[in-house]
Design goal:
By secondary structure, this protein is α+β, with helices and mostly antiparallel strands. The protein contains 9 helices and 9 strands.
């Protein structure tokens, strides 16, 4: 069977049971049981509610066997149809461990026969976990997030980015320029996501928002071409005054600490981080095209003239 050739035992995590017999003995397809003689049916055709319940039961069994934790609740927070007849699940697990209660996440994949905690594409070389993001909703397409292209463009692209992220510095300027010259085809929406590993990023993000409000043009582009690496260590610099002075010098502004530490800017920053969490984004740059994660960061190119 084609799918069985792709299912390698090495993919199975040590803490998950294969449970092949259990799964194959339950009626989880929309019609008859999956028949090995005719091949595995597409998981898209499976009765989703039955499959969800089955996977949730398997996850609970695994967790309840762990005597080191106390599980209070397990919920499916994302179900995603994936390539090659796989479905991915993300769980929120409310648990207590070492005297501390918190919510953890876990990911599993199933094709209706096997279950595994990790899959890597041998052909394309990417981890399927990178595909586990929800479809973006209208919250990500507010006009205030639009930095290039027409809001009525045929396609919409959302980027989560940090102005001190090295990869962001490499790719964001070209994305902005490409879309700027193809405004009817693609609209680009930008979500600020300053990473904790870059202490100065928050200062730069807030300063850029104020500068934009003051009429500084193309600040979303310029902040990525300013070469701050020549002025401070992105991973160590914590002096907000120093960073703001450098920003002012580069962009001809005269912003003050008070201007970038307002409640409104803090809420704007928190909104970006909230939207990042909602989209399960934990690194930059992360790009979505027409609502779906684009791990290639290049789908938009085929729609440029």
């Amino acid at each position: 069977m084609r799918i069985n050739k792709l299912v390698l035992s090495a993919l199975l995590a040590s803490n998950l049971s294969l449970l092949a017999n259990s799964l194959s003995n339950q009626s989880i397809s929309s019609g008859s049981l999956i028949d090995a003689k005719v091949g595995i049916e597409s998981v898209i055709k499976l009765d989703s509610s039955k499959l969800d319940k089955l996977i949730l039961d398997v996850q609970k069994q695994k967790l309840y066997r762990n005597n080191k934790i106390k599980v209070h609740k397990v919920d499916i927070v994302l179900r995603k149809i994936l390539p090659n007849n796989w479905v991915g699940y993300i769980f929120d697990i409310d648990l207590t461990a070492n005297g501390r209660r918190f919510v953890a996440k876990d990911i599993v994949f199933t094709n209706g026969i096997e279950i595994t905690s990790n899959i890597k594409s041998l052909r394309q070389g990417f981890d399927y976990k990178r595909l586990m993001h929800p479809t973006l909703d209208k919250r990500y397409y507010e006009k205030k997030f639009l930095i290039a292209g027409d809001e009525n463009a045929t396609h919409k692209m959302v980027v989560f980015s940090d102005p001190l992220c090295p990869i962001c510095i490499d790719v964001i300027p070209s994305i902005i320029n490409n879309i700027k010259y193809n405004p009817k085809n693609v609209a680009l929406y930008y979500i600020h996501m300053p990473l904790k590993m870059h202490p100065a990023a928050t200062t730069l993000v807030r300063a850029s928002i104020v500068a934009k409000e003051q009429g500084i043009k193309n600040i979303d582009y310029k902040i990525y071409t300013a070469e701050f690496k020549n002025d401070f260590d992105a991973y160590r610099e914590k002096d907000q005054n120093k960073v703001l002075q450098i920003f002012n010098k580069k962009f001809g502004t005269s912003l003050t600490i008070e201007q970038i530490n307002t409640k409104e800017l803090k809420k704007e920053e928190e909104l970006g981080l909230y939207l990042s969490d909602e989209a399960f984004v934990n690194g930059t740059p992360t790009i979505f095209f027409d609502g779906e994660i684009d791990i290639t960061r290049s789908k938009y190119l085929q729609y440029l003239k």
